[in-house]
Each structure stands twice: as C-alpha cells, then as structure tokens.
Amino acid sequence: MQEFSHHSAHQSPTRFTHFIRFGCCRVALVIAALLFTTVSAVAKQPPPPEWLNSAVVYCVYPQIFSTHGFQGVTAQLDRLHRLGANVIWLMPITPMGQATPNHPAFGSPYAVQDYYAVNPDYGSEADLKELVRTAHGLGMKVLLDEVLNHTSWDNQLTIRHPEFYRHSDNNPHDPGSEQVAFTFNDVVQLDYRFPHSGLWTYMDEMLKYWINTYDVDGFRFDTANNPPGLERMINQDFWLHLRTVLKAAKPDVLLLGEEEDTSLALAPFELDYGWNLQSAVQQVANGTRKASDLQGVWKKQTSGWPAGTMHLSLIQNWDLDADFKIYGGTLNTMDVATLNFTLNGVPLLFNGEEVGNDQSGNNTHKPIHWDAPQAQAFTRFYTDLLALRNANPALQQGAVSWESNSAPAQVVSYLRSNGTTEFLIEINFSSKAVQGTVNVPAGRPWTDVSPSGSPSGRNHVQPGVLELQPHDFAVFERSTAGANSGLQQAQDARSTTAANSGQR
Asked: 126 FRET partner, CA 20 to 30 A, in 292, 317, 429, 470?
C-alpha cells in the first residue's frame, strides 16, 4: 500500500485509472482462483460424519475433572452418557512443557512437550485405550485436543528439527533464533509455510498414530485461525492437505477448528466455534443488548457459509469464567442453556457446568466442585434439557423460524420443526415479568415440556399469549402432519435418568 500511494500521486488520471483497473483485475483473478481452489477442494472431500448431526459434546479437562486421571474419566462415562452427552472431548493429554532457562512454564496443557506421549499424571496408554473402548461401548465418540501451532520450549523437536520452527534470523538450522508464538512466552512457533520442511509429514503421521493406536474419532485443533485471515500461522494449504490425510485414515473422523471463518468452513473444518452468537447471548443475558438482536447475529452465523457447515454452541469453556458468573446468575444461565440446546448447532458442555461448578474460571486449574450449592438444580435442569434434545430430531437438525413477540427487547421466540414434530421456545432474558403476545402458526394444541428449573414449571399459558415470569423459559411441543409426538420418548428418557444422575 505504501508503494502504491507513493507512485499514484505522480501519475496522470488516465494512467492512474489504467493502473487501478489493471490492479483490480489482478486482485479479482487471484481471489477467484483462491475461491475456485477452495470450492474444488471441498467438493472432493467426503461429507461431515453423520454422527455429528445428533452430537452433544462434553469437554473434559482431566486435571480438574478427577484426581484419578483417565481412570476417573472412564468411571464417569456412564454418568455422562445418562446425562445426555454422546461425544467426549479431552483437552490436551500430552505432557505439559516445563520451564527452561529463558522461558517460563504456566502449567498449560497447550504447551506440548511430546506429541506422541501421554501425560503420566493422567495415567498410562492402557488407561487411555480403556477410556476410548468404554466410550465406544456406550455409543460415545472421543475427540482429542491437538495443538499444531506451537510447542513448549523443552519439546525435543526444537533440537532435533529446528527447521520445523519460525526463526527471527530466517535460519532454519539455528535453534537459538526460534521465535515465541504470538505473545505467549512459554511456547515456540511452528512454521507451516514450507511443505517440504518435514513438518507437514510429521503432523500427518502423528495424528494418524492417535487414530490407529487409540481409535479416536476426531480432533479439536487449537487456535486454528490465529491470526485471522491470510496471515494465519497455519496456512489453508496445510489444513486442506491434513483433511485429505485424516479422511483417508478414518472417513468419519471429525475436524473441529477453534475458529469461525467462512474460508475454513469444510476446508477443512466441519465444525467450528459459534463465538459471535455466544458473545451476543452474554450481552443479552447481562442486559446490555436487546434480545431481538440475537436473530440478526444468528443469521450472520448461518448465511454465507457452505452447506453442511456446523457451529459449536458454547456457554463456557476453559477460556471463559464460570457460566453463572458471566451470565449473571443461575436463572440467567438456564436461559442461555435453553437457547443453546434448542437452537441449531452442536451444543457443548464444559466439565462441571452440569453441577454449577463454583470453582471454575478462565484457564482454571482448580478441581471441579462436584457438590456445589446449586449442583442438584443444575443436574436436574441439564438432564431434562439434554433428554429433550436427544429424543427429538427437530431440536437437532430441524428448521429454525424466528417468531415475533410483543416484548422483543426482553424475549426471544422461535420454532424448530422437521415435518413431524414442532417446538416453540420462549425465553425471557430480563428480570421482569412479561405479558403480551407471540406470533404462532395455527395448528394443533401444544404441550408444555419445559425442562426443570423453569420458574413457571410446566404451567405456561398456551402459545399465542405471552406470559413469562422473570428469567422464565418455556418449551412447547406438538406433532404435525399426523405424526406421533416425541414427547413421550423425552419424558421416558428423563424419568430414566433423573433417578441416576448423581455426580462423581
């Protein structure tokens, strides 16, 4: 840009216009070529795994989940299955980097010391294999968290393969010039710009090792688009290449990227993060944004994306504070969760959310408080909510239709339907009672199937009339086209799980 501005001041209008037109043509051709390459690459790839359509992801940080590591996780898989989770995402299970003379260590699981090893604090390789086998026996999938951007400074790759890293002096054979990753002084940046450096092949083989040895079902890739755009540390050529490699090793493997970028949608990531919606929901829950704004944010997250793209719907993760803190209380959090599990997307539960863990926090290392004061209330709520979602395809992949109401600043209302079953969801994000009307298509009567924790229980007035207590949430169901309702299935599932939903 500097060179362009410097010369343009001395050019005649005719020559300047010609330069602009020629430059724009070149830019357009480059963009078109990139789009064609991306679309062609996506078209050649196998579709996302079918099991993703009904996925409910539960993220486990072994360090805070149990003092018994992998064995402690395995012991709780049946409980998590009864809760309603069917995908287990394990945060990084490799050894954590230790301090070196020039670089600190923060006890971060994202500072990878050895890509092929299991953290001995969590258990043995046999323990991990048993965890995966047990999960598969329950019909659950297992994802591993992978950190491909950077390693710890005491990772042996820094010595054995300095050419894998970025160097301040551009000398790939100088271990002394390896660069800090971003602004994180505990990790060193890998370099994906050169396919023939050996790094690409190393990562291919490493990830296939975890598939072949442990039979894992997918990977969550940390900071996959950092910094965003064409300057991202891991370029798209590598990501596309990696998807081809992993799909050849296991066709229904899942690639989840910590990013939200249309250029990476299905190229390679079949699932990304719904960050924008999460941020907007947090603002609504705290009263700094109108509830009606969520429809616009949702539209931006669902339009302009390749068909088949799915977003992870999150309330909390390791980078966020405790849910009831950031959303402003127990009822506010239940409002948010009701939206999270009844709107389209793949919902995520971060370990401890189901008991209202009051020891959680941003990058927390504190063990989960399984007996938190609100544990029973949260467990009943999530057991009901997940059972409702899991029993009804309309709440998983059904169409979304936002319906107007007379209190748009406080209340959202929308329909989920799949041609056989229809749900209407009303959520009052405000601390005041709301009365009014809501637009509802004509049809059969509704049944109130609201999950436990709703201030009005299952005594909400029939849709059409809007009457919600402060922070109230209502879920109504009816059958359509003469089909049988899924209500009884959900009620049966809830009754089965409610008696056996105790914590660790």
From this structure: 317
Assess contact for 259 and 225: CB atoms under 8 A.
yes
The two structure tokens encoding residue 502: 């105790």
Residue 486 has pLDDT above 60, yes or no: no
Angle of helix 375-390 relative to helix 330-342, nearest 10 degrees, comes to 10
Handedness of CA 101, 103, 106, 112 (dihedral sign): negative
Structurally, the chain folds into a number of domains equal to 2
- The answer to whether position 396 is within a domain reads yes
In a domain, 457, yes or no: yes
CA separation for the pair 357, 352 (Å, rounded) = 5
Residue 260 pLDDT greater than 90, yes or no: yes
Taking only the tens place, the pLDDT of each residue in 275-329 is 999 999 999 999 999 999 999 999 999 888 998 899 999 999 999 999 999 999 9
Q: Which domain holds residue 10?
A: 2-33
In a domain, 145, yes or no: no
Q: Cα–Cα distance between 141 and 143 in angstroms, integer?
A: 7
359 found inside a domain:
yes
Lowest mean pLDDT among 29-33, 421-425, 433-437, 444-448: 29-33
- Which of 251, 343, 341, 245 lies closest to 48 in space, CA to CA? 251
